[in-house]
Amino acid sequence: AVAQDKAPKKAAAGKIVVNGVTIPQARLDMMNKELTASGQPDTAERQKAVREELINREVLVQAAQKRGLDKNADVMAQVDMARQAVLVRALFESEVKANPITDLDLQKQYEEFKKSMGENEYKIRHILVDKEDDAKAIIAELGKGADFAKVAKEKSKDPGSKDNGGDLDWGPSARYVKPFADAVTSMKKGQLTTAPVKTDFGYHVIRLEDVRPLKVPGFDELKEQFRQRAQQQQIQKLVLELRGKAKVEER
User: Fold this and answer.
1) Which of 163, 169, 197 is nearest to 182 (CA)?
2) Among positive and negative, which fits the CA dihedral 217, 221, 225, 231?
3) What CA–CA distance (Å, rounded) separates 138 from 156?
């Protein structure tokens, strides 16, 4: 009996103790939660890997503390910033949870998006130049039979399309700035603009290659994208409200 009293006490079942320091169960739970959220199945191999990782971390943290790194000003500042980041993320998650975005809200946003996209999509080529007179000269050149793609490669300043002969591929009018979109929607298939179209980018010569009905993805396909966007807007609103109430001083 005396021998048993002097024997070292074993940790309770399931606990991990490293050099006398117990790794909190909450730490194990958190790592498992993150792995599950990332899609990793909960297996015996994963549990072993989590255990080994946390043991390694504890060993390294203890070594860092022995060297006094936990008292280092730069390290302490980084720890404080990490703590802030965790708290900010927790606040955002709390805000989203307290004010859930309903499917009805998302449906309304989807309908507005669908309406803004219009009924058609357009296959377009364009040539972009800096001066209106240059654009007029190009329109005249094309009117005499010049090859649009060749002229675009030689004279367009749009790096995203010039090498493809000015081809912007298929897209809804909502993709473009208003003056450009207005010109496209007023044109007929095969038509070339009779006058340069001015935007903030310069002067455009546009040819409408083709038109077809626009097929917008269904609500179920886009719902989660709209949810993410709505949550981002929700967080931005919270930040602005809190900043508006905050007393900020520079001393």
Assistant:
1) 197
2) positive
3) 10
Give the DSSP H/E element, type plus range, for residue 128: strand 120-129
Q: What confidence tens digit (pLDDT) does each residue in 22-69 have?
A: 999 999 999 999 999 999 999 999 999 999 999 999 999 999 999 999
Q: Which residues fall within 8 angstroms of residue 123, CB to CB, at 6 or more apart?
A: 168, 169, 170, 208, 209, 210, 211, 212
Between the CA of residue 202 and those of 110, 153, 205, what are the distances in Å?
33, 17, 10
Q: What's the CA gap between 242 and 236, in Å, rounded? A: 10
Map residue 195 onto helix, strand or coil: coil
Q: Helices then strands (H, E): number in the chain? A: 9, 6
DSSP one-letter string for 89-116: HHHHHHHHHHSPPPHHHHHHHHHHHHHH
pLDDT for 14 equals 72
pTM confidence score: 0.63
